[in-house]
Amino acid sequence: MAEQHREESGASVLDKISDKLHGHGGGSSSSSDSDDERSSATAAVKAKIYRLFGREKSVHSILGGGKPADLFLWRNKRISGGVLAGATAIWLLFEVMDYHLLTLLCHCLILTLAILFLWSNATTFINKSPPNIPEVKIPEDLAVNVARSLRYEINRGLASLREIGQGHDLKKFLIVIAGLWILSVLGSCCNFLTLSYIVFMVLYTVPVLYEKHEDKVDAFGEKAMVELKKYYAIFDEKCLSKIPKGPLKDKKQH
């Protein structure tokens, strides 16, 4: 009887342990299922969030990634600050102090060559090794890649201008005309160097500020786009639809 009672008590203990194990297993599976549901829900919410200009990538990826994107997004504050200080110093030299580019280049070359020449000749008197001047060359691959990139961008711009000139896309025509008009107004207000410095400052500050406050900016941009579409629809209905469009080319059916 005692042995039978021991066997029954042992079996009950094993049953309790197995029930607990099954209970934990079910909890883990249910928790994993809930995690999957939450991740899918967050992914769906992120997909529905409006992004400015319909972007799907991060700001870092849009800027090309790598070191240039790190520079514009201030990943390394020392390097970015140094570039900003250098650009500001160049603008102050040419715009505020009325320095000329050719004069600046000649003065820099004169100073550099004078220092190297005196240093090389002074080493013979003080018994020290002359300065090691590195040989600087432009790599052929780099020059070819830059030329190809410029050729591709110029050809794409010319193709876009040709398409606009043919009168196929009225919306693109109005956007280009507005952009050129804004550039002409800015060009009449300041010279090319100041305009370049303004563009540089915009590229150097807007992306990093947008990355920090992208949710607020995207929400405001969504509201603005809705209002712009409303006004454009009214303008299209009253004005643009009445303008005769150019002849469209018949598309070939393959």
Concise account of the structure shown:
This protein is an all-alpha fold. It is 77% helix and 0% strand.
Indicate the percent of residues in helices: over 70%
Runs in which pLDDT lies below 50 for 5 or more consecutive residues are 1-11, 20-32, 41-47, 248-254
Q: In percent terms, what proportion of residues is strand?
A: under 5%
SSE order? HHHHHHHHH
SSE diagram, text form:
Elements: H1 2-48, H2 59-62, H3 66-72, H4 77-96, H5 101-126, H6 140-165, H7 170-189, H8 192-212, H9 214-238
How would you describe this structure to a colleague?
The protein has 254 residues and is mainly α. The protein is built from 9 helices and no strands. The N terminus and C terminus are likely disordered.
Based on the model shown, name its key terms.
254 residues; mainly alpha; disordered N terminus
